[in-house]
Design brief:
The structure is a homodimer of 680-residue chains. Chain A has 680 residues and is an alpha/beta fold. Chain A folds into two domains: 43-495, Amino acid/polyamine transporter I; 512-642, HUPs (Rossmann fold), CATH 3.40.50.620. Chain A has 22 helices and eight strands. Chain A has helices at residues 3-12, 28-41, 46-54, 65-89, 95-104, 106-138, 146-163, 169-195, 221-235, 244-247, 256-284, 314-322, 327-361, 375-395, 400-432, 436-500, 524-535, 550-562, 580-593, 611-616, 619-628, 646-657, and strands at residues 208-209, 298-300, 303-304, 513-518, 540-547, 569-573, 598-607, 634-642. In chain A, strands 6-5-4-7-8 form a five-stranded parallel β-sheet, sandwiched between helices. Chain A has a three-stranded antiparallel β-sheet with strand order 1-2-3, with no helix packed on it. In chain A, helix 6 (106-138) packs across helix 14 and helix 7 (146-163) packs across helix 13. At the A-B interface, helix 16, helix 17, helix 19, strand 7 and helix 20 of A face helix 16, helix 17, helix 19, strand 7 and helix 20 of B.
Chain lengths: 680, 680
Amino acid sequence: MGVGDVSKRILLGRKLRSSQLGETLLPKRIALPVFASDALSSVAYAPDEVFIMLSLAGASAYMWSWKIAIAVAIVMAAVIASYRQTVHAYPSGGGDYEVATVNLGPQAGTTVASALLVDYILTVAVSISSGAQYAASAIPALSGHEATFGSLLVLLLMAMNLRGIRESGSFFAAPTYLFMVAILGMCGIGLFQLFTGNLPRVESADLTITPEPGLEGPLTTFALLFLLARAFSSGCAALTGVEAISNGVPAFKRPKSKNAATTLLLLGMIAISMMVSVIVLARQMGLKYVDPHDLDRLTRDGQALPADYDQHTVIAQIAEAVFRDFPPGFYLVVTVTGIILVLAANTAFNGFPVLGSILANDGFAPRALGSRGDRLAYSNGIVFLAVMAIVLILAFDAETTRLIQLYIVGVFVSFNLSQLGMIRHWTRLLQTERDPAERRRMVRSRLINAIGLSFTAVVLVIVLVTKFLAGAWITILAMIFFYALMRAIRGHYDKVSAELAADEEDRVMPTRVHAIVLVSKLHKPTLRALAFAKATRPNVLEGIYVSVDPVATDKLLAEWDERKMDVPLKVLHSPYRELVRPIVEYATEIRRSNPRGVVAVYIPEYVVGRWWEQLLHNQTALVLKGRLLFTPGVMVTSVPYQLRSSQIARERQLSDDFRVRPGDLRRGQVDERHPDELRR
Amino acid sequence: MGVGDVSKRILLGRKLRSSQLGETLLPKRIALPVFASDALSSVAYAPDEVFIMLSLAGASAYMWSWKIAIAVAIVMAAVIASYRQTVHAYPSGGGDYEVATVNLGPQAGTTVASALLVDYILTVAVSISSGAQYAASAIPALSGHEATFGSLLVLLLMAMNLRGIRESGSFFAAPTYLFMVAILGMCGIGLFQLFTGNLPRVESADLTITPEPGLEGPLTTFALLFLLARAFSSGCAALTGVEAISNGVPAFKRPKSKNAATTLLLLGMIAISMMVSVIVLARQMGLKYVDPHDLDRLTRDGQALPADYDQHTVIAQIAEAVFRDFPPGFYLVVTVTGIILVLAANTAFNGFPVLGSILANDGFAPRALGSRGDRLAYSNGIVFLAVMAIVLILAFDAETTRLIQLYIVGVFVSFNLSQLGMIRHWTRLLQTERDPAERRRMVRSRLINAIGLSFTAVVLVIVLVTKFLAGAWITILAMIFFYALMRAIRGHYDKVSAELAADEEDRVMPTRVHAIVLVSKLHKPTLRALAFAKATRPNVLEGIYVSVDPVATDKLLAEWDERKMDVPLKVLHSPYRELVRPIVEYATEIRRSNPRGVVAVYIPEYVVGRWWEQLLHNQTALVLKGRLLFTPGVMVTSVPYQLRSSQIARERQLSDDFRVRPGDLRRGQVDERHPDELRR
């Protein structure tokens, strides 16, 4: 080991061999924050939406808030229980998509995939919009500029993910645990104050809510039911993100499924406690909360509020009241809530490529997404996600309340298909399983999934009924679009595959090889190409020179003779300074005169390393190779000659290989080897 | 000939063979409009600038206007006479750049080239700005939006040139001749009215010009001289564009040089008549014209003008007065003047790539610019020109008066170096020439060029003195930048060339060829690649499969056995779904174990035709080829398999070959063959 190696090792840390990879898998205490940020962050906006919906009938309707919280908690418990079955049955990380595809067929799988795609976009839009609201409640100067600020945040996330940030456990652990401590701590203090009778009132406690026209008096049963259904379906936004763990099983330490199931249970309990506590506390502290568009429905002592009244989010109001004598507590809660929302958005940037690569492997997305090596494909996906999210944020002016109407349709479509798939899964297994203990376990699992399905089906119907006109139709249109796109891509791949299927005649060997070496000058690359071409012992070998200038042509011919080249040189005249067309025409000509032979075109290329050097070179070779690909019976050989500066590009490529790509952590694919190892 | 061919021939016109190309060369009557628009269009703004400069000392200074016109005319005559020598001596179309390079060395040549590059940008900016002013004088709604309108015009020209419009003779002939008729007709009518004593007054005739502070009283001799020098140097803008013919000699019909010289003479006479007539008429009709920024210096009967007073260009004012009883005449003059200005700007879009290809062939610009086939390079040049012109138009708010300060420095730098080069040229020829008649002719030519040089040198000094601070410094900075860039590009090419220079050891043939064929599936492209690779009889031949999924791997291995493939298949395991790195590593490994051999990598590729199909395929092959180019001792062979849809791309490429590119007409390179001919 040289001195350089030693110093590098000191600087860059111990290298891990590929076989040591197990060490980088996630223990539960790290996996929880990695996969929890999306699910937990919804406590930052789901309670607000419940109160907004109930406020339509005035503050008296808030008496229903804790019942709605319980209903959402029950549904969440059922869903969590269902997904615990899924992580045991499908530990490969395919999640809902895999469950639906395997058990219900590719059409159900594609439906789930399109729902998930739309959902990733909405996760970014909703989380960032809500995060921008929290930022505005801590920094008053941001008020009114939430959409701009949110778009900038999305651009920042995009840039970080394009650069390839290492989504590491520690990256998530600190803020997520801090968030749990802050929210649960705040709720704990608040509940303690409640029981000791010292509970403070929130800033909006002395306000009065004017009900919406038509909802003033005692409500009809139907109107009440519809109102509660709307509040409930908005509250179900708290369920988004619980499926993340089922996509991340491969990243867990062994026993993977068991650890994933335990983590899921933990996540569910924390999420439910947070949501129920926040809703109960808010109600007890006298919160009055309306749609930000309807601030004129809030009055104080019969007077309209001042025009600059700023309605703070539910958690911000509770934190302000609980920590009234300790402002750092307020800022801690608001700050970590904002951070967790940004982390939740980042989750989508990591989940999107994972889903893309799974779809690519099944032929529903461009193949390039399936290979880790294709940086361009990754980048396109990330840019697409960011652009779509920004469009939504700007179109809906970063208003969480309006975006949430679009949000949970997709989640519940995939919940439903996934539960249905799991029921089929157990039914199928039960047909062959004979062991009674095992059968009992399966029947129990099937029951859990059936309960889950019945809950999520009811929610989906409620969501569709209450939200279709409010915005869910946009989601459904987008899902149909993605569905059609994926089917079309798959159709194309199938068509190509059929056209490419091998039959016997394809094994016929060409009768002769006519090799031509392109000559532009008599320099090292040309000599190397001639030598390599000669080494393949073709039936005919000749150099080809495209002449655009008689003086240069004569000079080359003289040099050719002088060097006693043992390969004939053919000159093609090109009066219009074209280089590409004469060569393509000549190759076509050779092939035409001998249709069973093959033309081997050798192109000497010298390669340089810096981007501006690449602008100055090789354009013609690139164009020519592109053209010859479309010429039947021709094979094109690049004979590279590496100039000294090409070393720069080689090293850049090597370090690029080891760059972490979004989603790697979730797939358990973190390779800690260092480029040096390959450079030997 | 099939029915299809006949109908195509009817639709698309008679095909011309390459040998019939002579027919598309330009007769004088077409060449004049093609090359004249730039030079003639300056009559649209040069007189205005003369009057603006003189107005600084009040309307009394206008008594100098016709003398300045005569001075400019004399310089123009001298320059025209000089260029008539150039077109005889250098008929290849290299123009000033060639003259300077051959006679004064590459540094002078590069200086001329950088001057011309800057000038092309300014031609677009000045012509379009002036055109926007004419448009505003006919369409009052455009007033105040000249910069936006001008930028849109540049974008339109850019789009047309990117599409590849056919710059044909008829495209130029009609508007240019109409312009000549309109302006000369207007001047003729005006002069007739002058002699019959019926000359009308222009709209600004009853205004009074307040001189600039400091220039009110009788001027000192020095102040007067400086004022006249400024007016004269602005008037010299009329000389821009006369050099265009010297770059276009190859496009003329035989005898090329003689026809070009005659056309140049005609052009000079027309330009001089127009300019002198306009200036004389304007003065006689009582024109008052000031810098558009100084409109407050114009008064009527001691009263300030209304705030919305719109000062129309000189030609517009004359036309308005001459055609006061016949408004269509006014609109004709203004419209054709606007059109000729846009054509002049288009001239730069055509001249820029011509210069680029000449520079590329000498190694001063990226090589790609030198080959007609490279559409990308052409496009980049056109976009660059348009963007720079738009930046200038917006920065100077489309004010011709301010842009003109930057304009003519470049022109006169190249005039001077070119004249100096011509003098050297004749001196050199005289050293060997013995025929007395020929010697007399040469001495006379040298005298003409010497007179030209003395005039243009004086003008250059005047321009530098009067305009340096007013904006010429920007031009000079830009010239220095382009100069340095061109030298750097040439330096890079020279360095690469030295590194590539051949020596004897390069002829050593590789001792053995180890061929590997990349296998992804056992389909037609793979079978073809295996057959082609086998046909080259390598020392070792093996298939390589990168395994990312054990199930797919087993399936392939089984199929390989079943089909009794006679080539061994090697499986490389890739736990991270990478495709590229394992192959690069394997190739490096083979090469390392046998450093004198060569690794031949065969990549089966299927090619599709539509752009969206290309997005779905071949990404990995592209990345892999890029990577292997940087791996020493490897040659990379693409074995294409053309799918049915690839025919679409092939036809698109063929028709692209025949697309006319900007500048083709000027180079005499219009190939009228039709793609069908190649499609046999």
